[in-house]
Design goal:
alpha/beta, TIM Barrel, 13 helices, globular, binds dihydroflavine-adenine dinucleotide
Length: 311
C-alpha cells in the first residue's frame, strides 16, 4: 500500500533537498550506502573482496539536469575505476566493476541528451577496459527502456562485455531476454523498482512468474545471466536451472544490494557461487534510498525518526 506513495516521493526534488541536507539521515542511509566518498567505496570493495564477494560500484545520482552534472558523474566513474587499478595489488580490479544510470550522465537532457549519455558511457567503458573490468548499465523507468537498450547496443559494438539490466515486471522483458541471451551477453535480471502503470507492468505474483520465465530463457541461452534478487524463491529457481542446464559456476552469478541479506550473500559465496554486491556511494542517495524503502516499508519508521530527530 505504501509502495506507490514512496515511489512518488522518490521523484520529489523538495523532499530530496530536505533529506539529503539533513545530517541526521546519514546514519540510517548508511545501512544501504557505502559512504560519501570514493575512498569509502574502495574500502567497502576491499572488505567485500576479503570476504570472497565481488562488487559493482554505483556513483549515486540520477535525473541529471545539466551537462556539468553529467560531466561530474563521468569523471567520478573514471576516477573510481583508476582507483581500483591503483589497488590492483589487492586484486580489486578483477573483483569489482561499475554500474551506471544513464539518467545520471545526461540521458534526459533536452536536445542531445542521448548523445551526451552515450559519449559519457563510452568514456566510462574506456576507463573500465583500461583496468580490465566491466560496466553494467542500470535500467530506470519504462519510458527509458528503448533508449537505454539502444545505447547498450551501440556500446556493445566497441565493448562487447557491457552488461544490461532487464526488469521482470515489464510485459516486454521475456521477449527482451530472448533477444539478448546470445553469446557474450551479460544480462542482470531484477524484478524492477519503479512505479509503473498496469499497461506495461505485471504486479504481485505475476512478477515472480515472469522472473522465472526470464531466468529460464537466460539460463537456456548462451550469455552470462546475473541473478539480481534477494528473494529465496528466485535464487532457488536460478540454482536449479544452473544444474539443469549444466552450467559451470563461472558462467552465471548472483547479485544483491549492499546492506540487504548480507548473511545470505556470504552463504552463497561460501557455497562456491559467484556473488556480487551492488555498492552505491556518494551524496545523492535520496532516489536510491526511497526505492529501498518502497521495497520494504518496515524500514520507513527508522528513516522518519531520523528526519525529525533533534539529537
Ligand atoms: P523482494 O522485494 O520480494 O525481496 C525479497 C526479500 O529480500 C524480502 O522479503 C526481504 O527479506 C529482502 N529485501 C528486499 N528488499 C529489501 C529492502 N529494501 N530492505 C530490506 N530487505 C529487503 N531495479 C531496477 O528497476 N533497475 C535496476 O537497474 C536495478 N538494479 C539492481 C541491481 C541489483 C544487483 C539488485 C539486487 C537489484 C536491482 N534493482 C534494480 C532492484 C530490484 O528491481 C528490486 O526492486 C529489488 O531487488 C527487490 O526485489 P527482490 O527480487 O529482492 O525481491
Amino acid at each position: 500500500m505504501l509502495r506507490q506513495p514512496l515511489l512518488a516521493a522518490a521523484r520529489s526534488p523538495r523532499l530530496r533537498s530536505v533529506a539529503e541536507k539533513s545530517r541526521f539521515t546519514r546514519p540510517v542511509v548508511n545501512r544501504f550506502v557505502a559512504g560519501s566518498t570514493e575512498d569509502d567505496a574502495l574500502r567497502v570493495t576491499a572488505d567485500l573482496a576479503a570476504a570472497g564477494l565481488l562488487t559493482t560500484l554505483d556513483f549515486l545520482g540520477e535525473d541529471t539536469t545539466s551537462v556539468e552534472q553529467a560531466e561530474h558523474t563521468v569523471r567520478a566513474y573514471e576516477s573510481v575505476l583508476a582507483g581500483l587499478a591503483d589497488v590492483t595489488g589487492t586484486g580489486l580490479a578483477d573483483r569489482a566493476e561499475v554500474s551506471v544510470k544513464l539518467s545520471a550522465i545526461g540521458q534526459a537532457l533536452p536536445g542531445d541528451g542521448e548523445r551526451i549519455a552515450l559519449d559519457g558511457a563510452r568514456r566510462i567503458c574506456q576507463a573500465a577496459e583500461k583496468v580490465g573490468t566491466t560496466v553494467t548499465i542500470d535500467m530506470e523507468d519504462h519510458t527509458t527502456t528503448d533508449s537505454t537498450l539502444g545505447i547498450v547496443a551501440e556500446l556493445r559494438q566497441d565493448f562487447p562485455w557491457v552488461g544490461a539490466v532487464l526488469q521482470a515486471y515489464l510485459h516486454r522483458t521475456e521477449a527482451d531476454c530472448r533477444e539478448l541471451a546470445g553469446p557474450g551477453s551479460r544480462i542482470r535480471l531484477c524484478k524492477g523498482a519503479y512505479a509503473e502503470p498496469e499497461s506495461v507492468a505485471f504486479s504481485g505474483d505475476a512478477v515472480e512468474d515472469s522472473y522465472r520465465r526470464c531466468l529460464a530463457v537466460l539460463f537456456g541461452g548462451q550469455g552470462y545471466p546475473m541473478v539480481a534478487s534477494h528473494d529465496p524463491a528466485m535464487i532457488a529457481a536460478a540454482r536449479s536451472l544452473a544444474v539443469q542446464q549444466q552450467r559451470s559456476p563461472d558462467s552465471y552469478e548472483f547479485q544483491m544490494l549492499y546492506g540487504i541479506r548480507p548473511d545470505e550473500q556470504r552463504a552463497l559465496a561460501a557455497a562456491g557461487h559467484r556473488m556480487r554486491v551492488y555498492v552505491p556511494y556518494g551524496d545523492e542517495w535520496y532516489g536510491y534510498f526511497m526505492r529501498r524503502l518502497a521495497e520494504r516499508p518496515a524500514n520507513l519508521a527508522f528513516f522518519l525518526r531520523s528526519l525529525t530527530s533533534k539529537k
